[in-house]
Amino acid sequence: MDDDGRYRDGRQDFIRGAKDIAKVAKKQVGKKIGRGADKMADEYTKRSYKRFEEEDDDDDYAGGPGNDGGYYRNDSRANDDEGHSDSTEGHDEDDEIYEGEYQGIPRADSGKAGSIDGVTAAQAQQFRDLSAYEGERRKDQEELAQQYEAILQECGHGKFQWTLYFVLGLALMADGVEIFVVGFVLPSAEKDMCLSEPNKGMLGLIVYLGMMVGAFVWGGLADRIGRRQTLLISLSINSVFAFFSSFVQGYVSFLFCRLASGVGIGGSIPIVFSYYSEFLAQEKRGEHLSWLCMFWMIGGIYASAMAWAIIPHYGWSFQMGSAYQFHSWRVFVLVCALPSVAAISALTTMPESPRFFLENGKHDEAWMILKQVHDTNMRAKGYPERVFSVTTIKTVKQMDELVDLGDSAAWHQKWKLKLTTLFHQVWSNFQAVFSPEYRRTTYMMMAVWFSMSFSYYGLTVWFPDMIKYLQKQEYSSRTKTFVKEKVEHVTFNFTLENQVHRQGEYFNDKFMNLRMRSMVFEDSLFEECYFEDITSSNTFFKNCTFIATLFYNTDLFKYRLVNCKLINSTFLHNKEGCLLSDVSDDNNAYMVYFVSFLGTLAVLPGNIVSALLMDKIGRLRMLAGSSVISCISCFFLSFGNSESAMIALLCLFGGISIASWNALDVLTVELYPSDKRTTAFGFLNALCKLAAVLGISIFTSFVGITKAVPILFASGALAAGSFLALKLPETRGQVLQ
Exposed, middle or buried by CB within 10 Å (0-12, 13-18, 19+), for 79? Predict the structure, then answer.
């Protein structure tokens, strides 16, 4: 019995001791959690999350005596050793009640403080969760990049990629057409709309401004709602407003339509290159993206050929009264919308980028598309029995950023929430391009894009303007001058062109059914003369006297009569029209189209060379080398003293610089990860259009004044671009991030 009693007493002592140890441990844990919550509250008040992380790390690993706060501390063993002190004995019930304060059971006098500590702890935990989410997402993206490259290798390169090549090529062709449309229609449109020089300049720049806005907007959206869907929307906007612009009559409405058309086509370049790159394996990417650039050249050739074939045919027109006119240049604008319409039709048959689906957690959709790519290529190569062996693909961890308003919410509230959320997603993605990880790359790319665009677009517009200036100089050198001539009882019914008549006397002469081009009459006398059915351009009468002269159905408006005296003279049934400052005949129009055609065609050799060498010598060498050669070619501009010399230099510069553009497009695609690719590309392309506007405005202001400034500006920008390009990381041989 004594043994049994001792056994029971010992067992009870053991159980009592175990309970004491558990109570003390529970109390110490509660104290540690309380101190950690207080510490987090202090740190959150100071808005110093970085410091919080550092001290939290110190708590985990340092174990120093001064580290007395945080979630994890190495001095907990010391506190546990103190757990059996006499001060803890005999206070079990009080300790149980006191411990409730640290278990989320607020005391009557500390409810408010407890709630604040709970909110602070939740916010701190949210920060920790976000950091962990970013780390997991980055790890998923790295694993996906490697696996996706292996899958593309298994799918091979074949019929599917070539089909997509031609479909996306149509979209890129539409972008090339858009650049040339306004320049080709201006000589004809200025007659219909009575455009002044400032209005013509604005019409030429509005397309670039629209493309700048479109590149930024559509590039950002493509990373959120998909490449294919965004491209369809942007091309639809382009085609609709291009169609409307061919019918509108007023200058303001035409300007708006071309602006909206430019906004639509602005998404073409950033989306097309990103979209196509995500179907290309590493060893094919540089070459085939360079081949894709050829469609921009094809777009320029198409626009030049259509302008040459359509605009000079004035018979291709009709009018409804005097208010509505549809001339041949409007037919040309309509035809230029066809590549965009064709791209929309073809794109509806193509799938979304599987890489976009995987980045957004849509595994099954991506797997089906990759299987389609594999099966299409294998059947075309004669291996239909080969099975797509991939069963599971890594997807990137997602965070749901939408808030469900429920079925009771109104439709406009739901749409407002969706649009607001989408805007914040796009904006945060754009800000991520300037995060510390990508900041240096982005700034360097901005400098290279700006310098390339400033010099290229500035010079390509300066060349045609210089050719026009040289044509005017040559035309002026052939001007015939007549002094003190006397003409009586003569009928002029033939074209008068490029003549100056000074101090002449004309008595009872008739000017009927003729055209006057670049005619100037100075200090002359017209007495009892008759002007009927006269069409003129760049024609003026200065300090002349008209006595008993009749003007019937002419466009010799009074503002063509500079400081003239009218004595018993009459104007009847004046023609409606505009004062045109330039000679715009068919020969000059054909010359403009021919020069544009040659300049566009000249990039073909550069396209071929860059495509064949892109994966062999690397992107940086291609970009820097082409920029240096383009810089050297700028100094040959000083020898361009004739029309033929300027055309040759235009072709030389275009053929060399196209390799730089191809390398820059490939480099931009490969430097940014898939979830930021079109956002970064769109932003850089928008900056490119801004630089183009500045370059065109600056370079054209020196036409006829000096060649030195354009040469220095262009060569300096290209030299800076080639130097900065060498500081960028090489992406040849790397998987798509």
Answer: middle
Encode burial over 382-418: b for 16+ CB neighbours within 10 A, e otherwise: eeeeeebeeeebbbbeeeeeeeeeeeeeeeeeeeeee
199 close to 661: Cβ distance less than 8 angstroms: no
Amino acid present at 505: E
Helix-helix angle 411-432:677-700, to 10 degrees: 70
**Are the C-beta atoms of residues 213 and 203 closer than 8 Å to each other?**
no
> Is beta strand 324-326 parallel, antiparallel or unpaired with respect to 540-542?
unpaired
Written as six digits, the tokens of 167 are 């479909």
> 308 is written with which tokens?
């040459």
CB 593 within 8 A of CB 184: yes
Q: Which residue ranges of the chain lie beneath pLDDT 70?
A: 1-134, 313-325, 398-408, 576-590, 640
pLDDT digits (tens, 9 = 90+) for 684-705: 999 999 999 998 888 888 877 8
The residues pairing with 527 across neighbouring beta strands, listed in sequence order, are 507, 547
Q: Which domains does the chain have, with CATH numbers?
A: 480-572 (2.160.20.80)
How many Cβ atoms are within 10 Å of 74's Cβ, its own excluded? 13
548-569, pLDDT tens digit by residue? Answer: 998 888 888 777 888 899 889 8
Using a 10 angstrom Cβ sphere, with 0-12 exposed, 13-18 middle and 19 or more buried, the burial of residue 655 is buried
Contacts of residue 407, defined as CB under 8 A and 6 or more positions apart, other chains included, come to none
- Going by C-alpha positions, the residue among 234, 411, 244 that lies closest to residue 334 is 244
Question: 497 φ, ψ to 5°?
Answer: -145, 140
